[in-house]
Amino acid sequence: MLSSLHLRGAPAFDAIRGAMIGPLKPVNFVFGPNGSGKTTISRAFADPATFPGSSLSWGSPGQTLDIKVYNRDYVAETLRQAAHLPGVFLLGKSSQEVLDEIDALSGPKGSIASGRTRITTLSESLTAKDGEISSSREALKEAAWSKTAEVPAELSTMFTGYKNSKEKFLSHLIEVFEANPSTEDEFSDLTKEAAAVFADDASPVQPLPAAPPLDLEKIKGFDLFAIPVIGSADVRLSDLIQRLGNADWVEHGRHYVPDSDGACPFCQQKTPTDLAEQLDKYFDTRYTEHLDRLKAFRLEVQAWATSLSAYLDLLPDRNGASSHLDETALNTARAQLRAEIEILMRQIDNKLAGPSNVVALDAPAKGIALIDAAIQNANASIDTFNSRLKNRATARAALLKRCWVVFARKSLATQVGRFEGEMPPLLKAKNGIQSALDAANADLTAKRTRLSALQNQVTSSKPVIEKINKLLASVGFHSFRLRESSTVKDGYSLERENGTIASDSLSEGERTFITFLYFAQALQGTPQSPGATNDLLAVIDDPISSLDSDVLYAVSTLIRRIVADISESKGRVRQLVLLTHNAHFHKEVTYKRQGDKDAGWQYGVVRKRQGHPSELVLSAENPIQTAYAALWQEVRRSAADPHGPAAGLQNILRRILETYFKVLGGVDDTAIVAKFSGDDSQICRSLFSWVNAGSHSIFDDLDYTESPSTIESNLRVFHQIFIETDQEGHYSMMMREDTTTSAAAQ
């Protein structure tokens, strides 16, 4: 930011030679009459080298700003004739080379047009490919949606959250089968798990008890099957019986001896008298005991078989166990066991029928093993069920995921397979088209950027016209606007409010106004010259000249916009120096409305001095104020120093009362005087008598000298008049007793 300008110079610019203009703030308003040196100051800012020995002082070497100056020199250089204005940007290359490249880019058959055509073609191809992808997705979506009815009712909760959106349903389905290429699960398996996971009333299931055990070796009498059970060896017949090996035959036949009347029951020959005795001795008590043990063995095996059958009959009826029991495996095991038990019982019966025979018993091991396996599998399923029931939330999520995988990979195997076959080439083609489209868009953007850069190198009125007309519209100015000249290339024409084109020369005011608009739009945007910085110091010297009120308003609005941007660090302008000779314009741009930010304002006055260079005085207070405010300033001075010079104070008080009560308020002075008594009434009447006398010149009372006591009395009664009329607020504001509102009165 610029701190100050040290101005030296040649005799031609002696108006303010030797001055130091500063220290400067972000916003600097300088007032001075014509001929006081304002233009000299602006020229010094534009080119300090014009003034030998002059220099600019920057607040910091890293805070230098580019300086843009608007003054009469700028107007003369910029506006050469009514129908022609140079463009914002100067030509940097050969015109023909630039124009040829512009034509190659922007012509009807140029690269930009062909680029747009290629983008259109690629966009259409991309749309068509998207249609093919959409059709494939739609086919899968409808097929999958219809298949939901085939999912077991116990698992239908898997579709919760997807029933109201087919698209959401399809997206999840695709996500599932892309993450799960295959599965070993079946819905029948998952249905069993669902009983524990999905059923709110599910309860733990007790494990199945083991089948009744059978250990043949531990049953009393098992050892007799491995030896012949025969009679006593001490009997005379034992040798014959053992030699013939017919003990079982003899044992069966001996029961007929008592009924054969002495004849042999086998050969009908006369039997020895002691035959029955010999047979009884042979088949003694030990033999009988062995037979009893064999019979008991059979009974115990039969009891086990009966118990096992009852056990197996009850298994499917156990609470909750049936769904875990593989009935097919169980039935197979029972059939195997039944066959093996029959074999075992025949073997036992054979031993009982021929005790002397050695019989090897075949335990029903395979059938029992099958039964045990079925029970173990059922109990494993029950354990899993109970575990899922205990951890229902986790198990539910896992089961739902598996349900979706089975649905995708089993129920929709054909449709999903078709989709997976169609989609890769479609997506590959789409990606190729998209890549080509992105490249085409990037190429077109680069060509347009190049075209813009080339156009910026060519002097053209069109962009400037657009910007200036936008400025005019933004400040509500409609008296005229600019348009391209129909006779001069890149020239300007002025279009009046009624739509006619001005054919005569521009007036002085129009020249000033248009060049200021040209300057204002040049402050916007990014820097165009190589090496130029983005931030600017704008110096504006008398932007109004012979202007009517609406033009003055437009210019002041644009300047106030620059001031507001400086306070908010917006735009390119970081510092402003405004010089003007027009008091009304000065008041318009310096008036602080409610909400205006103070960007660091200061005010200056350039004063001419007889026989000496002009001087520039800077101040935090605005030195240019209204006549009414100036009158109050004298009242404040007299109130602060009653013993000081007070020539014309009573006339000043009279003019304030006349302006406020008679002109603005329409108040009856007689009613006001009636509110006072004694000396104060006389003083009040005298003040209003001055009003009625119609004196309007401070010089009317030059031969009247007021004493300090008179001054104090007049000021006291003057104050009391505002109190009595309920206008003390205005008095306090103008006397700056309320510093908040005093600025607004200025």
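The above is record 1. Record 2 follows with the same two-line structure.
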Amino acid sequence: MKALDAQEVLKEYKEYKLADAQELELKQLLETLKKYHHFFDEELIRRSFTLCFVSHKTMTRASGEPYYLHPLAVAMIVAQDLKLDDISISAALLHDVVEDTPITIQQIESEFGKAVAVMISGLTKIAGAFKDRNVKQAETFMRLLLSMAQDVKVLFIKFADRLHNMRTLRYLPAPKQIAIATETLEIYAPLAHRVGMNSMKNEFEDLCLKYLDNNSYKFVARKLREKKEVRELFIHEFMSPLEEKLKDLGFKFEIKGRPKHIYSIYRKMKKQRIAFDQIYDLFAVRIILDEPHTKEDCWRAYSIITDMYRPIPERFKDFISIPKKNGYQSLHSTVITNNGQQVEIQIRTLQMDAFAEHGMAAHYKYKDGTTGTASPLDEFTSWIREILENPRPEKITEFVDDFRLNLFSEEIYVFTPKGLLITLPQGSTPIDFAFEIHSEVGEHTVGAKVNQQLVTLRYELKSGDQVEIMTTKQPNLSADWLNYVKTHKAKARIRQFVKNQEKTNIENGRELFRKKMGKLITEVNDADLIKVAHRMKYTSIGNLFHDIGIGSLEVSRFVKAVKVHLTELEKEESDSKVVRLSEKEFQTLYHEDARATGENGLIINGAYANIKYSYAKCCNPIPGDVVIGFLSRTGDIKIHRTNCSNVPNLVKTESERVIDVKWPKMVNNQFVGAIKIIGQDRQGLITDITSQISRQMNTNMKSISVAESNGLFEGSLILYVMDLQHLEKIIKELKGIDGIKEVYRFD
């Protein structure tokens, strides 16, 4: 957009008449809103859409489409999937206006009201340049948390924004795809799980896998498609007698048999190290009882099902009597059919299903029917406020990491001696339990009983445990507790104690040093002290004073070192001319040196570049793989496959070093590829394999490793290949050899 000031933009918006195409888009949004809300401010939506269009009318997205279609798509998700109100739709339409145009939050408030302005403020990224990109992300996330504490609908709009960005991620370069997908998987998917938005969480995870490990994504998706007809036939045969029985007894219901989402299957294969065909719970049968059925009817339906099919007791879970913290309610059971097939069953009411799919966003549809008890939405906002009120670590990134770990955790349910239910993250200890009761209880904890038996404070609690905390009159906090607590609240309080204790020790150490130095203290400054500390192998002067304060370093030793080096340091300071480079200058220097000494090869940042590069041994990329580069400290580039297990952490911690790289159309070099072969052992099998590779495929082998056990053959081959297509062709040919069961690329 041209450099207009805010007043010019606002003037144009007030006078602007939408074209027919935009009127149609606005009409579709309004019609969607009318489906779920009888009363709403249509004029507010019209004005919001108009400012959205005028503000972004000259902007385009990476896909080339007009930019305003993005906030419109976000607003449609908010209206259609989340069914939120007109204020939320307005904020969704305007969520990028403050960030991308001269319009300010104050002007938004003046035009659209305070409620819209508060939401947009929480959705806006932190402005300004940060040296550490992770700090910028953490600051933005902190702003989001603060806004969530006031109105959790800010989070729902952020989900819609991130979901549309993930759906259109293919238009961005690979490094940005990986960075955004990694952040989504680590923050947004767990947050969606925490607020019970299962449908959105699943789509987040599947889309992330698509960009972080595309080959695995396509493999699982293909396998699910191949088994679709078999799966649907089985569900029909399984449910037909059950459906007839439920109808005879007057149940009104809907049956859904859906496969588990791609990422959950992928994660199970990775975690349990099993093949796709070894996963037997690929889908779940869901029975949704229509209104006015109640939770008692869910138990009746469960009884009917278990009369027809034998249940597996240890696979039964009652989330109706004890809902998950995010409000999820359902009965889960696994039953065995007459032919031995295991089937997961979920039974819930229509209202429970709405909460299961859309989580706390469904609260706004059903809030009129809630009881006087606190809703999951109220508990969630209270939890956010409590986290924000807790002492925060000095590093904001540490705060976000702690918060994220609590989002990832599964839940356990434990009880106080009086029977009060407490929900904690899996892996929690009695200390976490004590802090959950009250900070004072946690700070004075000296021991614990679980199920009336004394346990250590390191004891890992399990669902159903009854916990009693023993306290003392004096605070009993220990820095060691940080090693085995899980909850954000406990970590925050213990960290504050450690920080205060360290501060006291540092001050004591500094005071001892001052007294020992006497009058000489005026001749030394902090810069000199830091230099001496570094020579004594301390990373900071604070750490050195801390050791003096606790007595692990004699103060006289440090004083002697200062006196000995003071003259030398002063002379060095006056004589030397130290050259210091900023991080950017450092990278530029090495970049130029690398270009001067490198060689042609990959297309780097869109062009052939004369930069030295090498292929990462952790993932062995070959032409055809989707790859990205990382600029090392020595100036060369390490080439990784985008699905390499090391890439997400590298992108997260050193995103400024990410380089966009692509393969040239023709590569004449040979690359190393590895293949794993599993099959039935027989005479001549190795000869057939090597002959197929060397003669018919015209490929050289570098090495071959073979193992045989109980008639099963397992071979590992290292080959010289031209590119990924060459390697895949070899794999396809080897699968045709008699006795071969499985052939796949081995990383």
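The longest strand covers residues 671-680.
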